[in-house]
Amino acid sequence: MRRVLTAAIILLAVAGSTSLLQARQRESRRREPDITNLPSPEIDKVEGSLEQVLKNRKSGTHFLSDSLSREIISKLAWAGQGITDADEDLRTVPSIDGTYPATLYFFTEQGIFRYQPDGHSLEKVHNEDKRPELSEAADDDDIIKKAPCSIVITGSSSALRRFSSADVQRLINIHTGQIAQNILMQAHADELAAKEFAIFDSRRIRRIARVEQLAEAKYIIAVGKPDVEAQEAAVEELEAEPDTKVVLVAPRYNFDDQQLFVTRNTLTDAGLAVDVASTRAREIVGEDASRIRADVRIDHIDPDDYDAVVFIGGYGAQGLWTHASVLQLASRSNEQGKIVGASGSAVMILANADLLQGRLATGDPELRERMSERGVLYVNEPVVSDSRIITSRNADSAERFAAAINEAIVEMQTEQ
Questions:
Q1: 121 phi and psi, to 5 degrees?
Q2: Measured between alpha carbons, how far is 346 from 307 in angstroms, rounded to an integer?
Q3: What is the tally of helices (H) and strands (E) in the chain?
Q4: Ordered alpha helix ranges (H), 121-227
Q5: pLDDT tier at 255, thresholds 50, 70, 90
Q6: pTM to 2 decimals?
């Protein structure tokens, strides 16, 4: 009886194992991707084809001062919103429920002009050159200011009232994106340099261009004849970028303006390359409303790419005190022997990452007790260096703080 029972158990085990194996095989077959290889596009088959335009399209940020001809502006306007069939009211982009809720504004030295698809004409809405103000609204390093023409694409919700607010924004974003793509393709086809912007102060642009209340700027496209020599010089300068790099980590909102800009400017004046990082790689705003675009997201930073990682304070830095990616970045940078710095309230990041236990450090005096609770040996000095960790008390010591970071980097490189 025992032999029979044992044999039965063995058979059941084998059967179970076989069933499990078969199930896994079936699951594996189900998971195998069904891939169809596509033929390579024949990019060079037809000269001037759309495929060639798409392949060769690049952003250009260096322009000659020459004004664009009426013929070129005509092409750009038509590409964006021109009428292709007057009887059917068809344009170069699809409509939204039979309407076209976008408007194009051309900013030139002669003033601001609004494109009228009906009649294919420009209506002057401002007599003054507003490119400098537009450039400031986009915080674009004067690219828009120097471009002979910049096109602002706005979208209005006034004709889309039957849609929900969420649907309206999505539809307008798609519609204006299609217009922007058309304009960029036309610019490249005419061998122009063009650069698009999607981060700017929309309210300020509404005032500058006298845009209707329910409309909002969605894109800016700076366009002009390319300055090839300046572009090549910029490429050479980029290739000759300093080997020493520092990343300044700042909160997305309410960073200390002076700490960030004085630290950055002092380091760049010393010949160092400086990136700015935040929780998003987009425009960040300081306590005094200064704006700067973050070059990289915090969770994308590799300490191997930098010689120093520096945390910038300000009221918004409190949101980074216990941020997992921020604490991990501080720890990894320290473990890899990098220079690690923090100023003002951002010193709490290093304290919470357990980098300051038993170490001398300074920081915002109001955080002295908190820092002491984390084992920090607080010193009420403008700048304190302890090994490769450098801390600063507040914005007043930003220049000395940056100088100390530079000195520590030089010393570190000498030791290597």
A1: -140, 170
A2: 19
A3: 13, 20
A4: 131-138, 143-146, 165-189, 202-209
A5: very high
A6: 0.57
